[in-house]
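Anyone else keep sequences and structure tokens together like this?

Example one:
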Amino acid sequence: MGRNVTTSQTYSSNDVLSLVRAWRDPDTKEVLGVILIDLRMDMFKKIFENLQLEKSGFIYILDKNGEIVYSPVNSIVYRIRQEWLQDNPSVTKEIRGHDYRILYNDYEAYHWKIIGVIPNDDYRRVVMDLRTYTFIVTIITLVLASLAATYFTETIIRPVRKLMRLMRRVQSGDLNQRFVSETKDEIGQLGHSFNHMVEEIKNLINLVYMEQKKKREAELQVLQAQIKPHFLYNTLDTIQWMAQEYKADDIIEIIGALTNLFRIGLNKGYELISIREEVKHAESYLIIQMSRYMGKMEFEMDIPEEVKRYHILKLVLQPLIENAIYHGIKARLGKGRIRISALLHQDTVRFRVEDDGAGIKPERLEEINRVLRGEEKRSEEAGFGLFNVNERIQLTYGIAYGLRVYSEYGKGTTVELIHPIVHTKHEEVTNHVEANDRGR
């Protein structure tokens, strides 16, 4: 009233809220003018009608002097005392026989208090509804979480249980079980490792079976070779006694060598023999061959005493010497020479049987070494002695040991025998065999 403001509509003082601010000079702080803005009260009404506090709750505004800025038509507003709103932003008061929850918040920009009034019954109902909704949402969440956990747990447990069943079957001896998985996750990788492990076990069992079979066959062949020597040993002992009666020294020497050959070869059925006895066996064989090939060959033994105190598989040198005579010395022109030597190298004993005979052609030498290394099977027409010695050593001690053949065609051949150092006659071979089986 009296502001001289012209508008297209006429508003009374109760229809507007006037906001007034002085305009001052920034340097002198002199008031230069006043800015006045009129806000229609129905704007507040529209805002607060959209902010309903339950069914009968309402909102009103007080200024810094406690005067009402805006209020809906409601008689409860005039029953709310200013002192109720001093200390606690939320109080419960009884008005006209009903309890009301009064909430307020300060609006610092204009020093207003925005006050909400909710009947206590509505307030409790809101709390109860909220508690009920929270409980329902919690139950639904727990049910969904349990179903999801059960589903995901089953996706993990099911293949694990399947893998456990397969393991029990493999444990009972069925090595044909395989784990089939469509996924490539950790369970799939575990199943792949299980399949690989079973396949390796199956291969190792077959390998051990074949090696044991070969070993038994080799032992049977050696046993069969010993049957006749045992009979001949007894017979030759009688012949030697008779030759002594007739003073036939040459015959006595040959028969004595042959008797030693058979006696040492039998070795009371033991597989291991001292190197001293094995060398003596080889010397007896050479004495017999010297009488047969008189003037055709000579031999030399270079075995240190420190080597002779160890043990070795029996009948391993004689086949190598026989091979040198029949395939080396016998095939050359003129007189030949065989040299047998030995040395200790790290944890092995190494024998070398050298001859200056006819030698071996390169392609045949390569074929022999491939067979000795296990890279190729021995043909039926191939010689028995050399490969039998190699198989016996490798089946007992492993593929790191055995024979190696070196030759230059027309100049001679060298066969190297690599054997582990064995200190005792019976215990060490058992230890080596067990260690070899674990290595496989």
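And example two:
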Amino acid sequence: MKFSKATNYALHTMLFLASSKNSKPIGVQVLAEKQSVSPTYLSKILTKLVKEGMITSVSGANGGYSLSHGWESISFLDIIQAIEGKSSLFDCYDHGPECPIRKVMLSSEEKMEEELRRRTIADLV
């Protein structure tokens, strides 16, 4: 099982924003440099986080990104689902809902999601 690089960058960006002592928005260039990633690529990730209401963006010369109010309650699962979507990791297409393999995989996924839902970026700050 592997999450995309986009999820990795999203989680690290959220942690950087949460750890930042700067009260002003942080530009995409700075955020991208911190992770050695293209600003264009990171902008696409940030757009998803803005759309989900996790961060806010401010346009202009002094613009950038900052955490939304109530960011302390944003879970790892919230961030992962903002980037990866909410579909299941495993799908047993041809074997129906009673498939014993499907039951094991879905149970395992539920436990992982429970842990990711319980943990927040605020836990790391």
